[in-house]
C-alpha cells in the first residue's frame, strides 16, 4: 500500500521462522508459566501460505501435547477468508482473533492507495466468513485519503455495524518516512513542517489533505466517539458472537485470579447495573450463554474492552481538538502576517 512502510523496512519477500524455532519459543513461555493469549506479531501471518500451513500442522500437535495452554491472535490480509483450510487450521491451533487492515469501505480510496486485495470481493462477506470460522475480527480504518468524499466517517461506522466488527481501530492517515505516500507528498510540497514524531490515534495529520483538515478532524472525533458508544458497542459485539464459530479446544479449567475477579466485578457493575446498558448487558449475556455457550467467556472479555475505549475516546477528542485549535491559530496568524506584508509592499 502507498502509506505502508513494511516493504521499506523489511523488503518485499516475507521472512519466516521455521516451526522448530517458533515452538522452542513457546516452550520457553510455557516453562515460565504463561497460560494466556499470545499475539503473533506478523505484518501478514499468511504472507507465505505454504510455510504457515507447515507451522500450523506442528503447532496443532504441540498444543494438543500441552493441553492447549495458549490462544493466539495475529494479523493477516483479508484474502485469508478465501482459504477455508487455512482458517480451519488456525482455529484448530486455538487462534481466535485476527487483525485486518480494511482501511476504508470506499473502493476509490483503496484503489488510490494501491490496496487492491481489499477490492476483489465483498469486504462484509469476507469478514462474515472469518467470524463463522471462529476468528473474531479486529480491523484498522483510516480517514483522510486524497479526494475522499465528505461523510467518510459515517461510511466507516455503517460498515463496522454491517460487518459486526467488535474492535475498530481508527486513525487519521499519516505519511510515514520513505513510503510511497511520503515521497509523493514531498514532491507535491504537502508535508507539514511541524511533523510530530509520536504518530498515533491522538495525532493530527502530518500533511495537507485534499479537503479541509478541520472537516476531517471533526469527522474523525465524531466517528471514534460513535463507534464506542456503550449501547452500540454491546449490540455489535453481541451480533458478532452470536455467529462466531465455537472454539475447537478449551484450555484446562483454572481458578480465576484476583485480577480476573476484580475486572469481572467492574464490568458487571458498570454495564449491568450503573449505566443504562443494564438491560442490553444481561439480555445479550444470557442469550450468548443459551445460543453459543462455547464463547461466553470470550464475549465477556470483549465487553470489558469497551471500558478502555470509553476513556480513550475522550482522550482522542481532547487531544485532536487541542491540536486542531493550535493549527488553525497558526494558519490564521500566517495569513494575517502575509496580508500585512502584501499591504506594506502595496
Describe the structure.
This protein is of the alpha/beta class and 346 residues long. 55% of the residues lie in helices and 10% in strands. It has 13 helices and 5 strands. The protein has helices at residues 6-10, 19-31, 49-65, 84-92, 107-112, 123-133, 152-163, 180-187, 213-227, 230-243, 258-274, 278-291, 296-345, and strands at 37-40, 71-76, 95-103, 136-143, 167-172. Strands 1-2-3-4-5 form a 5-stranded parallel sheet. It is globular and about 85 Å long.
Reported for the largest beta sheet, the result is: 5 strands, parallel
Class inferred from helices and paired strands: alpha/beta
Which residues sit in consecutive blocks of at least 5 with pLDDT less than 50? none
Shape: globular
Count of separate DSSP helical elements = 13
The helix content is 55-70%
Q: For the record, give the distance between the C-alpha atoms at the N and C termini, rounded to a whole number.
A: 48 Å
Strand order of the largest sheet: 1-2-3-4-5
What's the alpha carbon Rg, rounded to whole Å? 23 Å
- The number of distinct β-strands equals 5
The averaged pLDDT comes out at: 92
Series of secondary-structure elements, N-terminal to C-terminal: HHEHEHEHHEHEHHHHHH
Strand content: 5-15%
Features:
single chain, 346 residues, alpha/beta, 13 helices, 55% helix, globular
Please outline the helices and strands.
Layout: H1 6-10, H2 19-31, E1 37-40, H3 49-65, E2 71-76, H4 84-92, E3 95-103, H5 107-112, H6 123-133, E4 136-143, H7 152-163, E5 167-172, H8 180-187, H9 213-227, H10 230-243, H11 258-274, H12 278-291, H13 296-345
Parallel strand pairs: 1-2, 2-3, 3-4, 4-5
Helix pairs in contact: 3-4, 7-9, 9-13, 10-12, 10-13, 11-12, 11-13
